[in-house]
Design a protein that fits this description.
Length: 197
């Protein structure tokens, strides 16, 4: 079930409710607009993503969509996925950590200022589309699938190709292929269901 609002998101993460409430309270004291994107709380300025809060199994986090641009406030920042994530940075909290809004707000304010100045890291759209052999075989034997795939944007095609390429085991690749075929035939992107929930 998609999350309807931030209160529901917090309720769904009982282990991190206190921490999420502290982070949310801090974010609500900024000029950012609160919304739900990709199933979690995101804070925007003029429709542009600035920050988000999230709960995971072993930690919760404050995210910055263009966190790599932060210059003054970097001590607590971590790359979300080294080697994969270009712009996104996070500050992670475990149960042992004390969340200190008086320090975190400096990161948020710098991120807001960067957004006001139009600073952002553009995604690399020149990355070559590499369709894995298993996926190519499926496209070859299914003309309707090939036609639907060709109609997708390059970004959506890349999402699907990467999704199959990232699987290590052949069984996982086949399982993922079965999952994405109906989505491609419907003209949907891999992550579409998360974008406006």
């Amino acid at each position: 079930m998609p999350v309807k609002n931030v209160e529901e998101y917090i309720d769904r993460h009982p282990n991190w409710q206190e921490e999420l409430k502290i982070l949310r309270e801090m974010m609500l004291d900024t000029p950012l607009e609160e919304t739900i994107k990709w199933g979690g709380p995101v804070y925007c300025l003029n429709g542009k993503n600035v920050a988000g809060i999230a709960a995971f199994k072993n930690h919760c986090a404050l995210w910055f969509f263009n966190g790599a641009l932060l210059k003054q406030n970097t001590a607590l920042l971590q790359n979300a996925q080294e080697g994969k994530t270009k712009a996104l940075r996070q500050i992670k909290f475990t149960k042992e950590d004390k969340i200190r809004p008086e320090i975190l707000i400096n990161y948020v304010n710098e991120a807001i200022q960067n957004q006001r100045e139009g600073k952002e890291i553009k995604p690399n759209t020149n990355k070559k589309l590499i369709i894995p052999p298993e996926f190519l075989a499926e496209l070859d034997k299914n003309p309707a699938l090939l036609k639907a795939f060709d109609k997708l944007t390059t970004g959506k095609q890349r999402e699907y190709a990467d999704y199959i390429n990232e699987a290590k085991k052949e069984a996982t690749k086949q399982k993922r292929l079965k999952k994405i075929i109906p989505m491609i035939l419907e003209g949907k992107g891999l992550y579409e269901k998360y974008k406006n929930c």
